[in-house]
């Protein structure tokens, strides 16, 4: 039986390579998460929500190395008045970051927040744990257990400017786990911006507790980095009359899996999650997996996902709306669309509705299509060259998702960045 | 200016001949009108000249000056000076009207080896032209043709024409869907662009547009051919007697 004893499961093999951070207020949550991971095991291809996305490069002990290229995404929000926090290869760079003081919030680093009675103790890993049922998300449990750093933000008021976490990547091999926790007290308002490629392999968790009448806005730009691999998770819980709005822009990245798990627990709350993705090349794979639970009356949820795929790129969308028995007057909207610029690219969509209340309005739609020939001819007949016309129509296609960003300045920054990418491609 | 000789066109996908030998010469500085019943091939002619897909030229030629149009991509035809005002202008969500106009103007200039228009210069010109057509600043900011009324869409077509300054303008049923006031605005816009060096081909079902845009020559098209050519009085004849007389006269 000696042979059997040396046979490790992939989960055990991965855990064996990692050190559990110890000695802080998060110890209990980390141990709890570790046992969740051990119980669920790492995701495998046969798992229902990993059918379209191969998890192996995200779960194997060694990250695949990824060549470093300059990413202009690092400068995306430079024109915006913000408080900047910089992580280089997953390590906080205090010199490049702003002072952490801002009225209405306290910002601490996970790696340093060791006070005994810490506010995040009740939150760290809690929303992640809630989000494990009914669908297990083992990579998120892995993150809660082993994340070395991240930011903890407590928002007590309306904050005058956004906090911007800027990621930079200089290492070809960095394998990074960051865990961010944000708590918005009742009536608080806060915007989080995230941009830049984090690491060769990144596992991220963002837990956001949105208090009653509070509003959280999130705009994120992943990339532009063709070779990085990332599995990110957002877990959020919304109180009464609160709002959660998150937008993600992804341009390339060889493997990206973005999970978003939203729980509407207070009446009259609104959750919007949107994504615009531009994928180029046969090794591009992008997966948006969303799970929204309506567990309160008169809540609204919107999912708007748009993907432009070319040269054999693959896009995946798995979006579910679960409406519990007492969640009457629910208004749920879900749209996922792909623009396939050639016949080699593919879009796999799995919309799901599970409704137990009897007075709800839920709609979903999913389409895949090519460029609109009439619009293309219209532009060309005005002298716009074929490639430029295609780019304009591509922007036009993505616009519905980008328009989900409420702040006009941020919306324009994102649109301008998309236009730049397209222009460069055309040149 | 525009010289069409023996042009025969069929649908690409099916064996259906639409144009059965069209001959037409439009001189610089002149306005020609093409009238004709539904299905006579008027719109097909405008599409084939501007390079829309789905058609196959089986015989004949079309030149703009010395340039063989049929050899060129749609954007090359535009840069060569051809402009088609669409019967149904296309709505393009998410692309601002200004962005679209400036992209088009500068793409054509670039293709002709001319200097591109600066943002400031462009803004000045487009504002002046828009004002003449009673197009307000809000319409310029909106996505191309999105939420525009029928009249606004057609005025937007004329604005594009004014900005692009083509040599040869084809107007495909520009009067369709317009009330009298809107038609007058559009016609005024077109008349303002009538110059010595520019030719017009106005395609229409009805005489009423020609009250506002006075043609020099009127052609009647039926069953893929031009069957009669005359002066402005020909349009009045159609207005009074319909096409039946002319059709039977030719037959």
Automatic annotation (TrEMBL), chain A:
Coiled coil: none annotated. Pfam families: SUFBD_core, SufBD_N. Residues 172-397 form the SUF system FeS cluster assembly SufBD core domain. Residues 28-160 form the SUF system FeS cluster assembly SufBD N-terminal domain. It comes from the Bacteria. Belongs to the iron-sulfur cluster assembly SufBD family. This is Iron-regulated ABC transporter permease protein SufD.
Automatic annotation (TrEMBL), chain B:
Keywords: ATP-binding, Nucleotide-binding. It holds the Pfam family ABC_tran. The keyword Iron-sulfur does not apply. The keyword Nucleotide-binding applies. PROSITE patterns: ABC_TRANSPORTER_1, ABC_TRANSPORTER_2. Residues 2-248 form the ABC transporter domain. InterPro entries: AAA+_ATPase, ABC_transporter-like_ATP-bd, ABC_transporter-like_CS, FeS-cluster_ATPase_SufC, P-loop_NTPase. GO terms for molecular function: ATP binding; ATP hydrolysis activity. PANTHER family: ABC TRANSPORTER I FAMILY MEMBER 6, CHLOROPLASTIC. This is ABC transporter domain-containing protein. It comes from marine sediment metagenome.
